[in-house]
Amino acid sequence: MNNTVSEEKIDRYLEITKKALEKLKIAAPDRSFGKRLADDFLDMATSYYNDAKHFRDVGDLVTAFAAVNYAHGWLDCGARIGLFDVGEDDVLFTLFE
């Protein structure tokens, strides 16, 4: 079992999350509560993603790993409950069905 957080592993996870951020679209109508939720989920994901890049750059790979996983968790949750349109991509996202 490999339980080491390497630079390669962080870079791979950052790339996956970057692709997910680039792919998704807000699904909720502009004037809906769902839009506010979607925007908040996206802000949280983007903040954690940027934190992960920062921690990777300063060599704190464990915190970078945690942050990128939190980022992608926000994206998966938004996709799963329908806030984000991800084109039924069940590779980059965890969908309900």
Automatic annotation (TrEMBL):
Domain called DUF357: residue spans: 12-84
Gene3D superfamilies from the UniProt entry: AF1782-like (1.20.1270.90)
Domain of life according to the entry: Archaea
Pfam families, per database record: DUF357
Signal peptide feature range: none
Record's protein name: DUF357 domain-containing protein
